[in-house]
Amino acid sequence: MSSSHTLDNIFSNNRRWAEDVQRDHPDFFPRLEKQQSPEYLWIGCADSRVSANEIMGLLPGEVFVHRNVANVVVHTDFNCLSVLQYAIDVLQVKHVIVTGHYGCGGVRAALENRSMGLIDNWLRNIKDVYFKHENLVTHLSADESAELLCEINVREQVGNVCHTTILQDAWKRGQTVTVHGLIYSLHDGILNDLDVNVSGMQDIPSIYRMYSDTEMLARLPSQRRRLKPGVAQDAQQQ
Ligand SMILES: [Zn+2]
Question: Which partner from 61, 114, 213, 235 sits 20 to 30 angstroms from 86, CA to CA?
Fold first, then answer.
């Protein structure tokens, strides 16, 4: 059977990688086997070119990862919510990093009027983001509008993370965890900060808050974000 019909190359790569790690860091696997204690939860796109560990230069054990098409956080998605809850409550990550990327096929597909099957329903979430911020992108070229929508989508998903009971319960009990929005460029491999950093309930719109101000033990200093999550910069300035 030719190698194109088997996973031979993957197994040989794996053996080589495991041998290299064992040679260079003999305590790596014994330490990792005992526990993982990542500081980061990465919520990113399933795109094969956007690999969390490699982009951030982190080793196995250093980042907990959830990926789906176009890095969407949906409040009824038990997969994403379960990852988020486990990362926050059990692993006690310090940072939730929502990362989009320019040239996202999911975002581009959402801007088109064609059917690709079941995934159309998933991409509806991106169409909702577009429809909400249509005034920001309609005057742009198709390419510019797709690129801006990639950024706006990250801001919206940061908002969705912050609006969950998971984050708000964590903040209420005084846990230090910040939600960030980043965008990655396939063109040059650079990760850019969208300056959306939310570390407390005071930073989210009141309608989404699960607790009143008096219920909140806002005892931890927060890193104030410059932009509200879920709101594009231009819209905020209007
Ligand atoms: Zn993508």
Answer: 213
